[in-house]
Amino acid sequence: MLRWCLIYSAWALLFLFIGSVFYCMSLSGQIEERFSGRRWSIPSRVFSASTMLYPGQSTNRELFLNKLRRLGYRETVRSPKSQGEMHISDSAVDIFLRDLPQALEDRPGYPVRIRFSSSQIVSLQRLDSGESVPLLELEPEEITSFFGPERERRQLVALKQVPRLVLDAVMAAEDMRFYRHHGVDVLGVVRAMYVNVRSFAIRQGGSTITQQLAKSYFLTPERTLRRKLKEVLISVMLEGMYDKDQILEIYLNEIYLGQRGSDSINGVGEASLFYFGKPVGELNLAEAAAIAGLIRAPNYYSPYKNKERCRARRDQVLRAMERNRLISTAQMEAGLKTPLEPVRFAAYRTQAPYFVDYLSSQLNALYPPEALTGLGFSLYTTLDTQVQEAAEAALQRGLSRLERAFPKLKRSNPKERLQGAVLVMQPKTGHILAMVGGRDYSSSQFNRITQARRQPGSAFKPFVFLSGLDSFTPVSLLSNEPRSYRLADMTWEPHNYEPIPEGQVTIRRALAESINVATVDLAMRVGLDTIVNSAKTFQISTPLQPYPSLALGAFELIPLELARAYCAFAADGVLPYPLSLKEVIDERGSALERRHATIRTVISPARAFMMNSLLASVVEQGTARSLRDLGVWFPAAGKTGTTNEFRDAWFIGYTPDILALVWVGFDNGQSIYLSGARAALPIWADLMNSLPDYISGEWFRQPAGVVKRTICTVTGQLAIENSCLGTREEYFLEENSPAEYCSLHKPITPLEQILRGIGNVFKRF
Amino acid sequence: MFSKDFKWIRLCGVILLAVTICSCATSTTRPSASDRVPQASTSAPLPAPPPQAAQPAAKQSAAQAEVVPREEPAEPAPTPRMVASLQLTEQGKMLLDRNKPDDAIAVFERAIQLNPGSGQNYFYVAEAWIMKGTMDQAREFNSLARMYLAGDTSWMPRVEAQARRIASAPAE
Question: Residue A369's pLDDT is what?
Fold first, then answer.
């Protein structure tokens, strides 16, 4: 009997042993799989373009300071001592720059003083060496992250990046004997039991760092004996399979350290940014202790929920560090006296949400969604966050101003409110600097720049005039006589926005004053098919029909395409690809994708210059002349646009440096009762006035193929000096510049010259 | 008294003579067919107009309203933007020297943003595209360089040579 019992027991033990071996092998496989593969799903982060600063730069100080705050520079009351700090005074900002990887040579961070006058950067000077800095680059700004469903925010840090203070604080708070046990700390468990029994409460846990990692990584949160045994087993196996430093590094990146809305904060790298606005390498003792203290119960001890409770827990950690001789008593005392100062509760906010959507639509063609949400790419874009902020603010102010001035534009339903959109581009490169696809992203994600199809109205006229440049000149006369046009089974008669008494007007005036009747006359003389083909050259993708109303923009197009087409005027005839994504960098820093400005010549530089000259007249004397009243002092060209029944109001304006399109209207096509000049143009002016950095005051260079002639203002022919009473200078394409002298004013005789000369002398007195 | 009157008559005479001479010197009779091309003003660019005062622009008559808006400056004094752009151009050149055309283009694009009127930047972007073997873009940027550097005797030979290299490159 005993023998049989022994045999059965032996067999049972053998099976148990074999079972345990298989179980352990299975667990080991799981651990191997989990640790050798990708440990975390890291969201891709989207960055703006970097910012250049230089002496003499005009700048909007408010936008600049906002940018520094968004970049996470912490304001201090004294001169900045470490990277990421800044001190703001009336006439200067002192910044301790962060290290910045650059293509030519990585730039280590250094302190710099940026001196301002009222609206200019006067000087940039290093505070450490006193050298002046000719050009300074500020790091790109994170504008959003592409999350997976788990919505974990995590900044991976290598163990060597984590300061000793932080490691000591974490071990003092959680597992002082980490480097001495083998996954399970029996002594620690006994001590915890003793403390808990003595105090009749659970005051101390006995879980080691390895156990916590095992729990977090492999197990469910329920409290059962089976789960606890499994935790112990995994911990011991982990210790056998990996060294202590590896385990600690994984732990520091894995631990849950708080919550921001729907995003969880994981790892000390993210936590140090979230709570103290600085990378983990810059944490001081008190901050390190505070973060270590959070591990036990991140939301309970969160400084954002209860500062005193967080401070008390931090002090416990500091004392534990001193007790374990990790810091001196003096260090502890200093730490205890340090006030707890978490950074301001800045919400994680996706900046430029419409731009991000547009970017996503392009990225989806390149990468599967899992790659974007899990592989931790860094996506660098063309967005200028200062321009974006200015564009959003200008649109908000403009629409609110319209609603105040014209109460019938107000709607109670947020979905039906007056809408607007702004796009800002750099014409030569096609870089999209800002995109505001609507008034409020939270109430409408419809992007009115990239998804809307709206009639351009008169904003399309430049393409009609461009088509006519081969056979007409700026002084050619167009008919302004009312006329009906026969279409299939109906007649159509264009009307002018305002009465124009003259029966004939010049090309320059017809465009400047947006005269409909004359524009249709030009279109019919040029040929509607020619205009359709011309528009297609500019990559207008929506269908265009050769109807006379085409000349007045009575068809739908995508605002982005309209802005891009105008870029060709501002860029010497080259049509740029609208660029939003510049670079995709993987976690290891390798470039997966690089995009540059790509351009294609669509019209000659001479024709582009002629259009710029004609469209400058719109601003100088035409429908956009109110810009001068709105503080736009610099040379600019542009065109207003208003559609039938005032459904759409447009203004597209540009200089050689910047182009911006503004649209205002209702989504449902109701009338706004206002022209482009009244509704959209003031928003453009407000935006430009906020961006002194982008206003050089330069004008377009006259290219080969354009000539300037003095003409008689009456006949439009070459002026005869001293004969034509009114003369002015006019640009012409060289091939169709006028050859005939004024036929109306005859050359004067010598006697007439003498008399006229005398008259002029007396006029001077 | 008499001498005073004489003085006035003499003054009037001098003025009359001066006016006559001036008028004759500048007056043009209707030119003959052979000399009908007036002096082109493109060879001597005119100075930039002063900035427009931000005043209400009263609506003018049609004849008055049609004024050619502005002209480009002859030799613009380097502005802070131009100086900053030049710094970037130098950085871009160094990247080209290190055979990093992608990095170089990114830097030149920043330089173009700061000073779109600088032909050098277009020349170097074309150079970077040549390095990358993308000749259609090289050709486009070479054309821009040609436009902005026209008349610059030190640069045009380089631009021309670049155009020849692009033209002789094998088709993509």
Answer: 83
